[in-house]
Every structure is written in structure tokens, then in C-alpha cells.
Amino acid sequence: MRIARFRHDGQDRTGVIQDGQVRPFADDLETIAVIEMGVGAASGLSLGTAVPLKDVRLLAPLHPSSIRDFVAFEEHVDGVRRSIDGSGGVPEAWYDAPTFYFTNPHAILGPDDDVPFPASSVNRDFELEVAAIAGPGETIFGYTVFNDWSARDLQKREMQVNLGPAKGKDFASTLGPWIVTADELEPFKDEDGFFDLWCAAGVNGTEIGRDLLSNMGWTFETMLAYAARDSLVRPGDVLGSGTVGNGGCLAELWGRNGRQDPPPLRDGDVVTLTVQGIGTLTNRITSGQASRELPAVRRRDQEKARIERQS
Q1: What contacts 78, CB < 8 A, 6 or more positions away?
Q2: Using CA atoms, how far apart are residues 257 and 238, in angstroms rounded to an integer?
Q3: What is the SS3 assignment for 32?
């Protein structure tokens, strides 16, 4: 089952993609309500009148309350580290557990939306990922394509503080074109639970990278279990796979090539991500509004401050 959010005749609805048409849920259910039911119950829901898919505007399939983005591909870790801090290699700690960071759930874009990068950023990048959508009872409801857009110049500077990424990431993430329920992708799993699915990324019609999703270090089920450890995962929460290797982003290639080849994204560039069995996600690059300058940091004489505290 493929579940999509779409706009038709000025109304936003959630429905099921079938044979080139979309049929809305009869009770105007939102995506999160469908996810909370689980795949089995959702498959039995009543559907309304079909509308040709070509006549609707697809939207982001959901607006999650949280997004955990993992880093599950060794090749990506090595390449991006070379690009960001020049170190290269994979830290031994990477092998301990599927590490993730939280990104902004309020900056979600959908298929064919323009992506407003920070105006000051010149090292603009995409990231090809697959996102698992958490279902009830720590299950996985389904999967969608995920683009974790990255302003690498901002990211490189801010991560010197040993926090982040922060402003290098939180301006936009794209999900879509729809959610494919977990049962549909079961035939693609290998004996270890990894998906044998090809993932490809292109810019302006030229393929940049291609990798198998099965090159992940952990399964989505393991990542979900780790996310829930000593914490809470709710239905509808997003868990990103992390960027695939072999050109799943530009920074990996910059690190390996020792130069910015292919070049950073520019206004007007069109990025297309395709994941076998799920779908294709396309967006165009733009620049957001210029930001106001922040007040300068207040630098303090630490020795003087220590003496003042003691007096």
C-alpha cells in the first residue's frame, strides 16, 4: 500500500495510490491517524472516489513530531570526514551503536517543492537516504525517500564546537513521494534483514551516485530498537538511514577527490533521488532570504572573572 498526502481542488487530503490514481480515505483521516492504526488495520479502511494522480499535487506524506537521522553507511562516514575535517577513516565508536542526531521536524518539504538554502551558504549539498516511519508498538509502518539537505560550509564551522550539526542542516528536509508500507518491501529483504534496493542520486539529469541500501551497517529494526532505548518513539516518528555511499552526497565525493568535483549545488539546480521499490523525489535549489547579522559574542577575561567571583 502506498499512502500519500495530496492537494486537489484546494483541499489537502490523505489517500492511497492505486493504478495511477489516488483514492482519499473516506473519513478524511490524516496520515498520522492511519499510521497509529498499523498496516493491518489501515489496509481495511474505506476509500473515497478516485482521482487521477496526474491531477493532484503531491505533498510531504507526513509532518512528523521528531526526526532521528542515523549514519549507517561506513563509506559515507569516511568520505564526509575527509571533506569536513580532513581526518578520514571511520571512528571506532561508530561500530558501537547506530548513532543519530535530531533534525528539525518543522522544516519538512515535499515532492517538487523548492528548497531554500541559507543565502550565505555556498557549499550546498543533498543527502540520499531512506526513512523508516515508526508504527505502533515499536514496529515499522513503512518507508519513504528522505533528502537531508546540508549547508556544508556552515556545518564545517559549527561542528568545531563538538556539537551539531545544527544550522548546517535544520533549514530543510524533504520526504516523499509517498509512504510504502512495510509489507510491500518484505520481498526485497535479504536473509539478514537488509533491503536489496538500489538508490540513485542525480543533479540536472546527470547521475552522481548509486548504492545498495543493503550496505547499511544496521537494519532499520535495530535502529528503531536503539532509538527507543531509555527513551520513547511514537507512531509517525521518522528514522533516517543516513546517507548511502558511493556518491550519496557531494561531500563524500569532495573528500575522496580532494576537490569540489562535482561542484556544490547552485540556485536552479534540480536534484532527483530514486529508491527502487519506493519512488522518486525531485526538488529545485533556491536561496532563502538573507539573515540579519547577530550581535558579536561577549568575550570575557576569564582570569578577571575568577578574581571577581572570589572577592
Answers
A1: 88, 89, 90, 255
A2: 32
A3: helix
**87 — pLDDT class (breaks 50, 70, 90):** confident
- pLDDT > 80? residue 311: no
> SS3 of 158, please?
helix
Cell of 104: 528539525
**Which helix (H) or strand (E) covers residue 83, if one does?**
helix 74-84
The closest of 8, 16, 7 to 179, measured between CA atoms, is 16
- E strand residue ranges, the chain: 2-8, 11-18, 21-24, 51-52, 57-59, 67-70, 100-103, 108-109, 114-117, 124-125, 128-134, 140-147, 150-151, 173-181, 198-203, 206-212, 238-240, 270-275, 279-287
How many angstroms separate the CA atoms of 93 and 171, rounded?
28
As a whole-number percent, the residues of the chain with pLDDT over 90 amount to: 88
